Every structure is written in structure tokens, then in C-alpha cells.
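User: Could you check the structure of this?
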Amino acid sequence: MKKFVIALVMVMMFAVMASAAESVKAYTTMEEPLAKALFDAFEADTGIKVEWVRLSGGEAIARLEAERANPQASIWVGGVGTQHIEAKLRGLSTPYRSRAAGSIPSKYRDPENFWTGLYVGPIAFCMNTERAKELGLEMPKSWADLLKPEYAKKIRVAHPSTSGTAYNMITTVIRINGGDEDKAFAYFKELAKSVEQFTRSGSAPGKSCALGEIPIAIGYLHDQIKLQREGAKIEIVIPSDGTGFETASMSILKGGPDQLNAKKLYDWVLGQKAMDTIAKWYVIPLSDKATPTETGFSLTSMKLVNQDDQWDAANKERLLERWNREISTAPEK
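Assistant: Sure, the predicted C-alpha cells are below.
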């Protein structure tokens, strides 16, 4: 009888362990509907449930830092590439050589396998055409245009302390000014006169613009195209004096509780089904497996800055301190 009880207890323990193994905790910086579609498809294919939390890029880094001694998630999917580099530099992520990563060009993958790029998204401006008509505004075509007096308090953009999108804006303007940080920050002091609100999330300004709450927003092209395709009366422009871009990426988190299933998710996201799903988000997918969705925009038609994500990550703390000191200390709630 005693042997039977011990055997029964062991069977129950194995059942509990097996059940626990069939889930993975994830942080994501993708928009919630997109994250849900992707993770639901993974669960349907594998039976592994993704317990996910949506965070802005800055919030993700802050949470990973706070949970360093007791990590709560095992994978971070989406988010600006500089933040994944930052996670690596802070010891918050761990290398993983995925068998599926070969579909991504090497320049969009960490040479030590700490992160892998998923897609590229350029910075763009959008304008609500109905609000613009009411206010007599023309579409700004360049970063320089945003400083015109008629745009005073007519623009929303995210705050770089919480948004990778907005930090990408800082480094973009530095490069447009030939690397001269003083000129770039002089520009931002003037731009602040045009900004009605700094938001926490990089996608929030575009949503406000789509609703007509604000005439003009700065954000990523794919977020704005999605709003336009859903019926928002917005016009979209890539700044003619140059634009930067995000390399949305993915990392395995150091010490996470579900490492095996995290790696299964990582591999799956780089596979055909997931990449075809991602390609429908109006982004520029990096995988050679994906069939891009036609958006009317292409990287070859844009004036791209000479972006260096390694430099951007290494200088982030210093540049954000300067931003908070000289431009704006906090985003809107």
C-alpha cells in the first residue's frame, strides 16, 4: 500500500510538472491585438499557453531591472532593438542560438545571439486631414517643418524615458544634424513648443491623431498605416530630411521560469506561419520567409539616417538625462 501511495504521489507530481511546463510567461511591446493574434496562433499550434503582459519598451526594461533577483518572464517579444541591446548590456537577457534565425540577415541579429530582429519600422508623421482642414494646416514634410509657429501645441509624441519610439527620434535628429548633439537639443527645445503632450507609449500619439484629438503625431509608419487602413482620415509622410527606424526584436530573458517553452516560442516566431502573420502588420519584415504586405512605402524611397543601434544603446542613459534636464522631465499618465 505504501508503495502504491508513493507511486501515486509521484504520478501526481509529474502531472503537475507537465501541466506547468505547458505555459510560458512573456513580456511584449507589440500592440495588444497583434500580440494576442500571434500568441493565440502559437498556442493553437503547440498547446503551450502564453501568459503575456504588454509594456512599452521603457517599462519593459524597468520591470526586468526590478525583477532581476526573481525574474517573472522568460521571453520578451517586440520592442525597439536598442532596448534589447540595453537588456543585454545590463545582463537582463541570455544568448540563444535559434535554429530558425538563419532567415534573418546577420546585420539584424546580435553576433553573440542575445537578440534577433523581426521587422523594421521607420519613423513617420501623420496628420488628421479633417482637423487640419478646420485649422488651416498643411502636412509637415520635414523635421524642420515641425518648428513652424502654426504647429504650436498641435503635435503629440511619446516621451523617450518610457518609449523606444521617442528615443529613436532623439538619435535620428542627432544624425540629421551630423552628430552634433547641441544642435539636436536646440532643435528639441524648439520642438517642445509645438508638442501638446508627451505620452508614455510610442503608438498612443497616432491613435489620438486618428481620433482627431490632436492634428499631428510622430510615431512608427506601420502603426499609422494600420490606423489609416482601419478607416482613420489621416495622411502619412516620411520626413524628407531623414528618418530613423526601429528594428523590432526578441530576446530570451535571463533566469526566466519557462526557458524551454520560451525557446520553443522564439523558434516559432521566426518560422513561416508567424512571419506571414507579422508581414500583415504593415511592417517591413526581415525574414526571407515572409511575404511583405504592400503599403505604398519602401525603404529604398526613404532618406534613412546612418543608424547605429549599438551606439544608441550605449549612450541612452546619458541622452535621456540630458532630455529630462533640458526638455521634459515626465510623460503624461
